[in-house]
User: Fold this.
Amino acid sequence: MVTPLTHLLIPSRRPAPLPQVPPFIPDPGLYPFRSRWLDSSVGRVHYIDEGEGPPILFLHGNPTWSFLFRNVVVRLRKHFRCIAVDYPGFGLSEHPADYGYTPGEHAEIVSELVRSLDLRGLTIMGHDWGGPIGMKVALDQIARLRALVMSNTWYWPSQVWHMKAFSRVMSSEVFQSMILKRNLFVERILPRGVKHRLEERVMDHYRGPLSTPDSRMGVAILPRQIMDASFWLGEIAHAVPRQLRNIPLLLTWGVQDFAFTPRFMDRFRDDFKHVTVRRLDARHYVPEDAPEEIAEAIEEFLLRPSAAAAA
Assistant:
């Protein structure tokens, strides 16, 4: 069905210059990292690369960017090499016109970064959409993989009514308009996904990269992918227990999440042989609510003998 918003939601496949997105410069007091860039196959992709030691790759969800992990990275960079990337259309990365903004495409770009940096002995942490994206990268880069950390996420076709309903509602013309024109995800959904009110300067760092309707394309497309990417998710769900079962897995789970309840952890326990669980007093955006606890859990998990043996 063609709607007045169709031209906004389906990127043109004709060669086109990258749209001009208003620049956003993070406050170094909140985001004390040096920006780095990958000249990917679809445009310039932003990431940070902090510290030395075994590498950890942090993958965000919607509508966040590498800024979500800032307080985790600050704590872990003393002992680990922390890489956090912004998918195309998110954070400080470019917003390519000839790009679909699907999780499958994001996973391909992340794999490009992994190969470019030649990351080995890699731990991947995924939150929200970073979970299925991270699982796909893990499957594609399994020879480089050491461990996985997953936080309030999934990697299989949606089977629960509230996720299906969320996808349908957010994909409707009315809500797509609200996402694109009113920045619904940042202004309404993000604040409800944390325990305490975020400081205005923190909110400004989520608003900044998404300051125009055009810049919110990636945010608008992901909700519909909960259903539209079912085949892609099904392939991942089929492969995970067959190829990743023996990979050590840490779950840092916010038990007050309105979407990804603790019951989601059951599937992880079924598919993985070595699972460590850290239940956290947090809502959906766990790195905002409990960064110190996440960092502590990761440090303990990766420095213990069993995880070291898997490196």
The CA atoms of residues 137 and 211 lie 29 Å apart. Strands lie at 36-40, 43-50, 55-59, 81-85, 122-128, 145-153, 249-254, 275-280. DSSP finds 14 helices and eight strands in the chain.
